[in-house]
Structure formats: structure tokens, C-alpha cells
Amino acid sequence: MTRTVLCVDTEARVSDVAATIDAEEDLTAIEATSVSGAIDAIDDEPVVGVVTAYELDDGSGMEVIEAVRKRSPQTPVVLFTDVSPGEIDTSSFKELVVEYLNRELPDAADRLGFIVNDVIDHSAQVGFLTPDDEDERLKALDSYDIEELPIEESFDRLTDLIAAHFDIAVAFIGLIEEDQENFLACTGADWDSLTREDTICTHSMLQEDVMVVEDIADDKRFNKNEQLENLGIVSYAGANMTSSDGHVIGQVCALDHEAKTYTAEEKHRLEQFAETAMEILELRQSVREARGMEVSQ
Amino acid sequence: MSVHSERFSAADLPIDGIDSGSSILLTGDDTAALKTVFARLVAADDDERSIVLATNAGGRSIQRLLNDARSDAGSRASILTAEGPARGDDVTSVDDIADLTQVGMQFSTLVATAQQSTDRFRSGIFLCSTIAGEVEDTRSVFRFLNSNFLTELRRGEGIGVVAIDRSAEMGTNVDSMISGMETSFTARIDIETTGRNEATLEISGIDGNEGRVDVSL
């Protein structure tokens, strides 16, 4: 599969950078020679990564990085420049964070190709941590034929029950894919998916027990998250959906528009709801597989 | 480009055989004990280089700490400090630890420069809890760890240690954050101070070193 990488540099240098990227198997370069040109290119065509110089005719590479982060926060960017870090003005971009590669290093060109492949392959600049079994976890998730399973009604009933049981505004069942969380059922809101670094479930899935955030305004992991603010979420409780081979593939969650605490018993109850959701998924999958075997025989 | 060969050992700690590529989350609520164990893990052996991001200590202080852990290890260290001035080639300073874009670029540069002279490195952050307390949005800390710290361990022949002071104010649920970070790191060492200059380390994720071990500090 061809992967498109946007290369941003001055007229005099951009073709060299693009040639380095094109030399990599599976990578195809497109070029831009200005901040505005780079933004147009990102808007016109999906890219899997960006390589940008710092000094551009109409601005700096930091502006390119900022534009990428706003549009696609999980797309990795490499700042490839001969300007040293100390000379780069980051005062307005303190929390952008980028991979930096000094093009004056003796092996800079070799490193560039390697690094671009690496950051793309490993989603290496995301604003969340992934479990160390992430690859196996995604395979486990992929083993369920979610689109084909008749789980929607069962899950809708379950989230209705969860919302009523906890007397909360929103209850949902979500599966955590590589880049986003997909909501399979949601009572109290109309949500389809959310970028993974914007979801609290991204953090909750890393904990064995139920994760509770009583008031997200008090937690710096979430209180600058505009998506959560826009959705009106104030409190959160999430329990893991764990596959039979031990991988956390999703979350069953209780949310409210007010701060809320959960007792040990309530957390246990939420875990039971999550186990029930997982059982429904497993049973539907088993039935589908059994029918498939019958047909093939 | 990535070659994982001889394992790493810790200076003056009963921890051996740390695989190249290992990321160690070091936690505790006694800053002095954290500092000592951190130094023993990060102090470079003869054919290695240390790259340390120091949030709460100056370059010379870190060099002395590394020297205490392993003979002359301070001279084999590149230090990026948010406290105190730059000194020569080995101590670089940053003005604002919350400027993770600048910190990350400087740190990556030190790692890349170190790799020009030796393949093996030990990188460390002391203290990540200070960074988490200073930034606006904790997602930036995770992006920084992913972009400028954990990636280097995947690509090169090195180990990395991130220290977190559990008693620090991080503006979040510390236990929840550590528990999340733990699953992303390959190993965890939790320090419990048991007496004057004595502590128990609870180790997980380092083959052959699992469990509790008492150490003198």
C-alpha cells in the first residue's frame, strides 16, 4: 500500500527531501514550498506523515506542525532542519512536540527515511500511551466480525439499563481501534466515534480495575480536552471489555453532566455490565462461526 | 539500525540483564531514594553514554550523582537541565520545562549526538512528575514520551528510565496515571523506603529480577 508523505521545504531544497522519501519502499512524496501550500496540501489529500523544514518563505515549520495537529492530531511530523533546537522559536508552540532531526548529521538522509517509516509504523507521536500488547490487542479486536454481528439491539438495551441503573446522562459501549474509539451503542447521546487521544477510555483501558474520574475539571489529563468539553462530559466511569485471550478491546462507560462518585459496589456493578457486553459479543461471534462451518460443510 | 545485543546492568543494585530497548517506570514517594536508584540505573558503563533530562537538579549535581553510582559515569553523560546553567558540551540547559517542544528537540539531539560516538546509551528523565505538573495538558507529556523518549529505545541500543515522584502534585489522579503508564513501559520499579538509607524495590518486567529486593542506598 502506498503511503503519502508531505515534504515541506524551500524551492531549492524540497526536491532533495522528496527524493529521499520516494526512495523508501511504500512511501510516496508530495511537495509544498510554503506554510500556506502545506496547509492546502493537507486539506486536499490525506497524508500519513509530514516532513517539514523550519525556515519557510511565508513562516516557519512550527506553523505547519500546528496545522497538522489541528486537523489530524495523530499524524506524525518530522522537523528536518539544519537550524539547531536552541535557535528555533517554540515560545508559541510549547506543547506541539515533534520529532527533530538535524539535517547536518553525517547520516541525516539515511536517518530520515528510517525515522519517517518508524513514526508512521508505530503511530509514534500520539498524545496517549498504548498498552505493550497493542499489536496483539488490535488482532484480537479484528477477530470479531463486528459489522456482521446482530449485537446492536442487545447493546442498546444494555446501555439503556446502565443509564437507568446509575441514573446518569450517558452510557455507552465502545471498541477501541488503533486511531479511534467506535461507539457500538450509546444511550443519552448520539456519538459514532472519537479520536483516540480525545477519549478517556484510552486511559481507562490501561487500568485493570474500573477507572473513575469524578470531575474532569480537576484532572489535567482531560480538562484541556475540547472534545470532552463540547460533549458536556463532567464525570466518567469505565470498565474493561476483555477478550477471552486477555486483551482489552473496549469499554463500557457511565458518564454524567455532573460530578459523580462511585462506590465499590457500583464499580463492581459496572464491571458486571462490561462482562455481560463481552459475553454478548462472544456468543454472537460463536454463533456466526458455527453457522459458517455448517454452510461450508 | 536497531541492534539489540548485550544486556545492561545496574550499578550497585541487584538488577542484572536488562534487555536493550527496556523502558523502566521508576516510582516512589521519597525523592532522595528515587534519585539514588535512578542514578544507579542510568549511570553509563565504560562503553556507554547517559542522556539525562533533569527537571529539579543542575548539571553538576547530576554528574556527581552519576559518579557516586558508577566510577566516572558523570563524564560519560549528556545532561539537559531545567535548573542551572549550561556547562561545556555536556550540560545543556532549557529555560522552561513546560516547553516540551523545545525540551524534546534538545533531548533528541543529545541522543543522536551520543550515538555518533557510541551505540549503547541509557536515557533518563528525573522527574517526569515535575513535567506533568508544569504542562497545561497531560497529553503533551504522553506525546513527548512517545516522540522523544520511547522511540529512541525502539530504534537504538539503549534503556530508558522515567522517574515519577508519587508525592508530587501533578493535577491528576497519580495512581491512575501511573497505572496507565505502567502498561506502556516494559518494566516497573517501585521504591519503598524502609529505614535510613534502606529501601525495598518491587520489580516487575525485568526477566530474572522479578519480585521484592532490599537494597542499601
Task: Characterise this structure.
The complex is a heterodimer of chains A (297) and B (217). Helices cover 37% and strands 23% of the residues of chain A. In chain A, helix 2 runs parallel beside helix 3 (61-71) and helix 6 (152-166) runs antiparallel to helix 9. By secondary structure, chain A is of the alpha/beta class. Chain A is built from nine helices and 13 strands. Chain A has helices at 14-22, 35-44, 61-71, 108-121, 134-142, 152-166, 201-204, 226-230, 264-296, and strands at 3-8, 27-32, 49-52, 55-56, 59-60, 77-81, 99-102, 170-176, 180-187, 193-195, 211-213, 235-242, 248-256. Chain A has two domains: 3-121, Rossmann fold, CATH 3.40.50; 134-296, Beta-Lactamase. With 217 residues, chain B is an alpha/beta fold. Helices cover 35% and strands 27% of the residues of chain B. Chain B contains six helices and nine strands. The longest helix of chain B is centred in the middle third of the chain and has 18 residues, at 100-117. The radius of gyration of chain B is 16 Å and the shape is globular. The mean pLDDT of chain B is 93. Classes of the chains: A alpha/beta (297), B alpha/beta (217).
Write out key terms for the chains shown.
heterodimer; A: 297 residues; alpha/beta; Beta-Lactamase; 2 domains; six-stranded antiparallel beta sheet; five-stranded parallel beta sheet; 13 strands; globular; B: alpha/beta; Rossmann fold; nine-stranded mixed beta sheet
What's this entry about, in short?
The complex is a heterodimer of chains A (297) and B (217). Chain A is α/β, with parallel strands linked by helices.
